[in-house]
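Note to self: the last two entries modelled the partners one at a time, which told us nothing about the interface. This time every component goes in together.
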Amino acid sequence: MMAVGVYVLFFACVLLLPPCVIGVIRKGKALMQGRVGAPLSQPFFDLFKLLGKDQTVSQTTTWIFRSSCAMNLATTLIIAGIVPWLSFKPIFPGDDLFLLLYLLALCRFMTILSALDSGSPFGAFAASREAFLSMLVEPAMFISLGALALIAHSTSLHVVFDLSLPCSTYDVPVWLAAAAALFLGSIVDLSRMPIDDPTTHLELTMVHEAMIIENSGKNLALVEFTHFLRMAVVYGLISQCMMHAVGRLVEFNQLTAAIVSVVSILGMAVLTVWIESVFVKLRWRSTPEFIAYAMTMSFFATGGALIGDMYARHGL
Amino acid sequence: MQIIATFLVTATVLLWLVCSATMAALAFFGKKINHLVPSTVLFAGGLTMLLAAMFGWQINYLWDAPWPIYLAVAPLSSHLDALSSIFIGLLAVVVISVSLFSPGYLEHLSHKINNGCYWVELFLFIIGMLGLILAANAVTFLVFWELIALSSVLLVVSDLSNRQARVAAFIYLGATRIATGFLMAGFLWMHSLCQSWSFSDWHFDQHATLIPAVLIVIGLCIKAGIWPFHDWLPYAHPAAPAPVSALMSGVMIKVSLYALIRLLVMGGLVSPWVSYMMLAMGLISLFWGILWALVQKDLKSLLAYCSIENAGLILVCISLAIICHGINMPEIGALFLAAAIFHCVNHGLFKSLLFLGAGAIDCRAHTRDLELLGGLAGKLPWTMFFFVIGSAAICSLPPLNGFSSKWLIYQSLFMLANKFHSIWLSGLSMSCIAILGLVSGMSLYCFTKAIGIGFLGRPRSHAAEHATEVTLPMLAAQLLLALCCVALGISAPDWMAVMQPACTAAFSNAPVLSNVYTIPMALFAFLIAGTSAIIYVLWLSDQTNNVKKYVTWECGFGDLTKRMQATATGFAENVTYTFSPLFLYSARSKIAGRDRRHFPEDVTLQVSTTPVLASRIYMPIVRVVNWLGERMLLLQAGSIHLYLCYILLTLVALMVIGVLI
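The predicted structure of the combined assembly is written out below.
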């Protein structure tokens, strides 16, 4: 009975939390700009509205455009199932770190292709940018998660993010640095400010929104929900890192851990609001510099994991 | 078992030899050649070879050819065991698909190439690779090495009227000569150290073997297209006919890497110098190959550069296996070795698939230039489908085979880091993970470009607009390879067991490999496919939903033209700009007209990239050699008196030296 309850809760979170995150971001930005803003539930209404609409599809497109959003949603649901983003035990076995990174890449592959599919110059601009950004941010993602795997001595995600495992003092900086690297990486990965401005009206300057310029109706609803879910999962992963960093001070049991996870995912949304309200969008040519910060943080994380192990073994 | 396997291999070789002799005779007498016969023979031979590989996998059998066949100083000797069987299996699969693909492909070249010569060279090329895989001593090895080199040079230049192919063959021939030179020097040196030609007597664990090991590594790396010896590869692979490119990229490169495994890993090389040199070369080729692949416009050049990347990746695995052996971690060394072998097989499969796809485009759209392609999705739907599978595999996306070997590589790197042997080694392997991450991001960029510009959007030229789907056997060839890619992806643990004997032979206490691979890939593949199918039927399909067809969004200015799309160069511009020093990148733009700002009348943009090694290092060397050659001409004045004088001077010099010593 307990297990069933956990699964129901999990699926409720998968369905409800992602639109809430985006709702918080939009509301928060509106408040920061001195507007009232749409209600928190607006993303739900938007999704339902889009799901009720028919799609308009370009004649140039092929099966790639038609099916990519279904494949991406399916893959992202699996990602949500293998990543312990809510501190729950994941559903599937084989929750490997490198599998996660390549499933994310699979989504990206299909998204880029579907952007190119219509032969629209907007889509192609954005696809090229997305491919470039993800290429640069990939090493940071790999070794910041790799550093966490090093301190857990396993690449299995539920072992890496197991809150009940003992955490030494040497690990705290690793968790913090990895969280920072992942957060900077997530800005790139999720196409948020200051890399990409999702609210501008000019398609030529955008990354994610321009890639999905041809999607409409139900297709767009699925794409949007996939993006929201991906955002929630990545924010969840970062929150888990933060919770591990404070894990030496605070004892979590299963229930509090789950609640804190949900709250900190929303907290990440608030952090995003602050960043998006305070910073301006970077010029395109200076985005590699921004990614270099993520890279540096991930190197700190790896170095910390290696040096921490050396100290733990041989003493100071 | 041994008898069956030997019989099968011998029968295959004899069958092919007879067939190629017939073809040669027919070509000599100027008879017309029906492609059906040689391709059937090739197909049958491929099947028997596959059987031989299955039998050979279970045995470890050394076989010397009977008395009359003797190679001057050593017998013609072959060695069939688990490791060689895996590579024979790979060769067999690629050969089968090439035999299916060739007849249809050769149609569009029929007036340009001599079909009889093509088949003779192809048979000899494949026999050469088979012999090289089986070779058990240095002399046999060199014989087949040369057979491969010469027959593949002739295949590259099949179309003699093509200047590009002639240049490519010339450069390739030069590269193979240098490779053979290094290899021969290394082999002779090893022979004088070990007093034997047989590979099983060669052990690379002493100090004295350092230099021959380096010579052999360089010789093999030239043939494998490893940086900095890769320059011939982007010339030769695109110039050859597509089935030959598939064999060259899919198998020939792997055969050189196989020789590295056979000689150095099995031979117990421990020298850290050699292994770190190999690691550095591998890492650089990894990055360099994909970086250059990204900016290519020619589809086959793109694939050729990408082969450099993958050869580098395999070399990284081999060198780390040797490093692990040196620091007494055989269990991780065995993992690296398994990853290397597995990636050899996987890359052989998907790269052949991609080259066949490029060949299909070439034969139907009559161009491989991405700037002229596009919109092929509707014209060659099945070719595109297989090309997407091949690309997803090469980007190592789950659930395809590229992912299973890449995962094994990551896992071995992580395990090496996690051993904390020393902080430097752990840091090194974490850096390798970072580099591999960057490279896989780059290959994603590269292959979305290949598909997106090549197949999607609108046709950019008349030829692309009128392309049609290729013949059924050509599709069957691609289907076979695509199926192999999927099968090796979703049943990876079973394939780990296939590599077990080879790894156990190299590292006595190798772990059980099938226990290492813990991902239930078949389950994930099923879940992704099932869920997406449900979502598709529910919300997306034409049958269950109203779908309006309309033009691509054109801002309300009327229909888009085919020129209003991204180009291959434009799509990769971010990388070209960011890494411009490595490309010697230059861009010149001209925007002119009366109202230059709003309505320019003349807009031109010229961009260029130059291969930095070729232009900055190899060309100066070639120029110095040419200059020296011209100076040497003075000695060869053509006068008999002068030559008599040289003879006299030489005799005197020899006498003086003789007296002094």
